[in-house]
Amino acid sequence: MSALPTPSPATRTVAEVLAESQVEAVLDELDRDLVGLVPVKQRIRDIAALLVIDKLRAGLGLAAQAPSLHMSFTGNPGTGKTTVALRMAEILHRLGYVRKGHLVAVTRDDLVGQYIGHTAPKTKEILKKAMGGVLFIDEAYYLYRPENERDYGQEAIEILLQVMENQRDDLVVILAGYKDRMDTFFKSNPGMSSRIAHHLDFPDYSEGELMGIADLMLQSTHYRFSDDAQAAFAEYLGLRLAQPHFANARSVRNALDRARLRQASRLFAERERELSRDDLTTLTAADIRGSRLFHNT
Fold first, then answer.
1. CA 256 to chain centroid
2. Angstrom distances, CA of residue 161 to CA of 69, 154, 171, 222
3. Distance between CA atoms of 261 and 210, rounded to whole angstroms?
């Protein structure tokens, strides 16, 4: 009896993989939830496309080494790096590149010990928590302090390098921080630089984009600007952008939180009046202009 022919691998379409993984839903969320960041969003779509095509190739038996997915996110605070990292973890999970799809966000203090023998167990414990997902290391350049001979950051880097190479099919590492400092870090650590396949630069938001971010933040908490408050907040942003230590979306969130405090104090003082839905959801110009930024200038 002749042997039955070996069935050839079934071909699939990109649309079928997208429908099965529902990755497009994550990409759409990214577009909807994050204002601006057009180059970053396009790069995430490009990476997703690479992973989908790689999955189709694997289905046809076209053997290839798993793509390196370790990344570097550079940019100023509040530009959406952590949010994009969360979405990236979800994309990787839906396409089967990581088992769990969770994000573990850490800084130097979570990885580096303060005495001999302390760093290795700390770093390995964090890596254990992150396995099957994404490890996000913020301000990663602080791991390397060449001016201090007794610093233990280099030990953490060496452990990370080993895991990034040997277990890259079960862990993706994203290093984040200011661009100039990350460039210096990579020049000082060529082993780390060679393991990073994707470099994404997160630009600062424009004033118009910051207004859009403020509107989205208010909508998500059932607040809104009155017309005069909208104009007042645009004026606030113009003043705040000229001040030091502006942290993009983070500074917008802080400003809105303080405006909500002023609204609450204003309404609390009117304790005998019945408060309507409009009263409770509207920020007025007075709530914005109560900021000391207007008084200081």
1. 21
2. 14, 10, 12, 45
3. 20
Please check whether residue 172 is in contact with residue 141, taking contact to mean a CB–CB distance below 8 angstroms.
Answer: no
CA dist list (Å): 96 to 23, 53, 57, 91, 139? 11, 13, 14, 9, 28
First to last CA, the chain: 93
Tens digit of pLDDT for each residue in 25-51?
Answer: 999 999 988 999 999 999 999 999 999
* Burial class for 136, CB neighbours closer than 10 Å (0-12, 13-18, 19+): buried
Q: How far apart are CA 84 and CA 82, in angstroms?
A: 5
Q: CA–CA separation, 40 vs 85, rounded Å?
A: 11
What would the two tokens of residue 258 be? 């303080």
CA pair distance 281, 219, nearest whole angstrom:
10
The two beta strands, 71-75 and 103-106, are unpaired
Whether 88 contacts 213, CB under 8 Å: no
Please write the tens of the pLDDT for every residue from 188-210. Answer: 999 999 999 999 999 999 999 99
Sheet strands (E) in 192-297: 198-202, 224-225, 282-283
Gyration radius (Cα) of the chain, Å: 24
Q: What is the pTM of this model?
A: 0.88
Measured in residues, the chain has a length of: 297
